[in-house]
Amino acid sequence: MISYRGVQKVHRAIACIIKLSGADKMANLANARNKVLEAARAGASLIVLPECFNSPYGTQYFPKYAETLLPSPPTQDQSPSYHALSALAAEAKAYLVGGSIPELEPTTKKYYNTSLVFSPTGALIGTHRKTHLFDIDIPGKIRFKESEVLTPGEKLTTVELPEYGTIGLAICYDIRFPEAAMIAARRGAFLLVYPGAFNLTTGPLHWSLLGRARANDNQVYVAMCSPARDMSATYHAWGHSLVANPSAELLTEAGESEEIVYAELNSESIENTRKGIPIYTQRRFDLYPDVSAGRDN
Ligand SMILES: NC(=O)CC(=O)C(=O)O
């Protein structure tokens, strides 16, 4: 077991899938199914899909692809990704972090970028709505304003995977905010999972750096899972799904095309890293109990 808090130690295999997400939602779901089952056959017990795995990534696509998350089968047509992921986790008999999908909240009519987590029986055991929206403007390179369409989530997310451990779950731009990662680690997460879709400007600059940084800050595993690159799409994803270990070494990293990368996770690696460089227990929380106290805006 990987987790802390009194659970036994065993080793687990994670798979991060990098896959193309085109315009046809049902084709995207079918492609995801093939890849998840392939990862499960290869022995993965926790499988992660990319951000917006059922749609192209872009503000213009969110309303068209958005689903209301309705759990009961008669409404399956309204929530095809939800039901496909639930059935897939059960078929694969694995934990499944279903990347993310655009979500429509029916009462408020607000859109979110939402990740769903399923148990090996297909039960929904966690959800995360992207809390930090991707609003950037780098002149001549990339302008992206998720907030033109999306509403940010209002909670940080950890998910208990029974007999497996706790994971921290966040989406893409969320990784740039170390406070959220640290809170997940302090809640006992052994692994931080980020479905994400960096691009050809920010990917080479920061993707792997941020994955390794969050691993290093917290001495935990980090998994980041991206769509494959499609140069005919409006958004060019960086790709490079990866897993970093608690010492911030990359255990595996994909390229830009469809691929599945695998890594073995174990609790000894976390314990040994924390023994060797004990920053986890040396933090001076007495000096920084509330980081927001220092803000100037
Ligand atoms: N797409 C994102 O949410 C974030 C991203 O591309 C970046 O931070 O860079």
From TrEMBL:
CDD domains: nit. Keywords: Hydrolase. GO terms for molecular function: omega-amidase activity. The keyword Transmembrane helix does not apply. InterPro entries: C-N_Hydrolase, C-N_Hydrolase_sf, Nit1/2_C-N_Hydrolase, UPF0012_CS. PROSITE patterns: CN_HYDROLASE, UPF0012. One of its GO terms (biological process) is asparagine metabolic process. Residues 10-267 form the CN hydrolase domain. GO terms for cellular component: mitochondrion. The keyword Membrane does not apply. Belongs to the carbon-nitrogen hydrolase superfamily. NIT1/NIT2 family. This is CN hydrolase domain-containing protein. It comes from Penicilliopsis zonata CBS 506.65.
